[in-house]
C-alpha cells in the first residue's frame, strides 16, 4: 500500500514542501530490526547503506530537514515506511525574538529602538 505525494499534500492543512529539503540526506531511524534472522539483518544493512551515515557529534542540526522512519513488524513481516519533514524552531522565547532567530525580519517601523522589540 502507498500514497502518492499529491494525495498527501492535498490532505495537509499546511504543507512544507521546498527544494532545500532534499539538498541533505535524511536522518534514518530503523525500528525493530534487532532480530537475529538473516533476512532482517540484510534488510537493515541495505537501508543503512542507501544513505550515508551521519556523525551525531559533528552534524549541524539546521541541516537535517527530513527523517526517514522504517519499522519492521515481525508478525506480519511488513515494513512501515514514513518520511517526515523536520523543522528546527527556538522554544521558550517570545515571538519577536523567535522571528529574529528564524531570520524573519519583523516590521520595526513603529519602534524607536531594537530594545522595544525585545
Automatic annotation (TrEMBL):
The name this protein goes by in its record: SSF1 protein
Q: Which GO terms describe its biological process?
A: ribosomal large subunit assembly; rRNA processing
InterPro entries per UniProt: Brix (IPR007109), PPAN-like (IPR045112)
Q: Give any GO molecular function from the UniProt entry.
A: rRNA binding
> What GO CC terms are in its UniProt record?
nucleolus; preribosome, large subunit precursor
Pfam families given for it?
Brix
Q: Which residues form the Brix domain?
A: 1-118
- Signal peptide span per the entry? none
Record PROSITE patterns: BRIX (PS50833)
Amino acid at each position: 500500500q502507498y500514497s502518492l505525494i499529491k494525495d498527501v499534500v492535498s490532505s495537509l492543512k499546511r504543507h512544507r514542501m521546498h527544494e532545500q529539503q532534499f539538498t541533505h540526506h535524511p536522518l534514518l531511524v530503523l525500528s525493530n530490526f534487532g532480530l537475529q534472522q538473516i533476512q532482517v539483518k540484510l534488510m537493515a544493512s541495505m537501508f543503512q547503506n542507501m544513505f550515508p551515515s551521519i556523525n551525531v557529534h559533528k552534524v549541524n542540526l539546521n541541516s537535517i530537514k527530513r527523517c526517514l522512519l522504517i519499522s519492521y513488524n515481525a508478525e506480519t513481516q511488513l515494513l512501515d515506511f514514513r518520511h517526515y519533514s523536520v523543522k528546527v524552531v527556538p522554544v521558550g522565547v517570545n515571538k519577536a525574538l523567535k522571528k529574529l532567530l528564524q531570520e524573519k525580519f519583523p516590521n520595526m517601523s513603529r519602534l524607536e529602538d531594537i530594545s522595544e522589540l525585545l
